[in-house]
């Protein structure tokens, strides 16, 4: 039902242009259809976040402006789909001489072939509750996060740990 509405909105300039003395231009093309089943998209998402390192930058939003960017790194051991949109992200956390893998409950929604990971008010001891919306596409990520009275933006690239069975460059 959404596609006819979107197509109508995109065609409005082409229809109204002659009425305002402008030359008509071809209607913009709609994005290509997503190929692959839900299972294939989920398998690709799972592979992208297995033995993965997310390396990028983040910045805070303070008084409506962006602060300078800082480097950031996350290690994901893997993800597991539960039921419906519910997933578990097994994130490696290294803090204060401790190294643990924490299961983080998230929702994953799809925007075409891009996964949108949703964290809603996950409590972090000593830090409050955090929420985030992070889009994953073609080994990149970008999103926004908030933690009570502060928040910001993040983005970066995703690399996967090389398997011992892969041929090594000579």
Explain how this protein is built.
This protein has about 170 residues and is of the alpha+beta class. The protein has a single domain (about 40-160), classed as Beta Barrel (Lipocalin), CATH 2.40.128. It is about 15% helix and about 50% strand. It is globular and about 45 Å long.
In short:
The chain is α+β, with helices and mostly antiparallel strands and 170 residues long. It contains two helices and nine strands.
How does the SSE layout of this entry go?
Layout lengths: L1 H15 L21 H11 L3 E11 L2 E2 L3 E12 L4 E10 L2 E14 L2 E11 L3 E10 L2 E8 L2 E11 L10
Antiparallel strand pairs: 1-2, 1-3, 1-9, 3-4, 4-5, 5-6, 6-7, 7-8, 8-9
**Outline type:** globular
In total, the number of strands is 9
Q: Per CATH, which architecture? A: Beta Barrel
Strand order of the largest sheet: 1-3-4-5-6-7-8-9
Extract low-pLDDT stretches.
1-20, 164-170
Question: What is the CA–CA distance across the termini?
Answer: 54 Å
Overall pLDDT, averaged? Answer: 82
* The first-level CATH class name: Mainly Beta
Strand and helix order: HHEEEEEEEEE
Major beta sheet, specifics? 8 strands, antiparallel, barrel
Provide the structure class. Answer: alpha+beta
- The radius of gyration computed from the alpha-carbon positions, rounded to a whole number of angstroms, is 21 Å
**Proportion of strand residues:** over 45%
């Amino acid at each position: 039902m959404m596609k006819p509405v979107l197509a109508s909105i995109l065609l409005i300039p082409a229809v109204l242009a002659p009425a305002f003395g402008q030359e008509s231009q071809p209607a913009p093309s709609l994005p290509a259809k997503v190929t692959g089943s839900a299972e294939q998209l989920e398998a690709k998402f799972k592979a992208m976040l297995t033995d993965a390192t997310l390396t990028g930058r983040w910045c805070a939003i303070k008084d409506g402006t962006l602060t300078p960017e800082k480097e950031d790194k996350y290690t994901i051991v893997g993800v597991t789909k539960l039921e419906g949109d519910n997933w578990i992200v097994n994130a490696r956390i290294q803090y204060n001489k401790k190294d643990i893998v924490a299961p983080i409950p998230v929702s994953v929604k799809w925007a075409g072939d891009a996964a949108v990971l949703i964290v809603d008010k996950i409590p972090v001891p000593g830090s409050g509750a955090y929420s985030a919306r992070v889009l994953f596409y073609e080994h990149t990520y970008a999103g926004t996060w908030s933690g009570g009275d502060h928040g910001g933006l993040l983005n970066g690239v995703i690399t996967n740990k090389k398997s011992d069975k892969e041929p090594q460059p000579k």
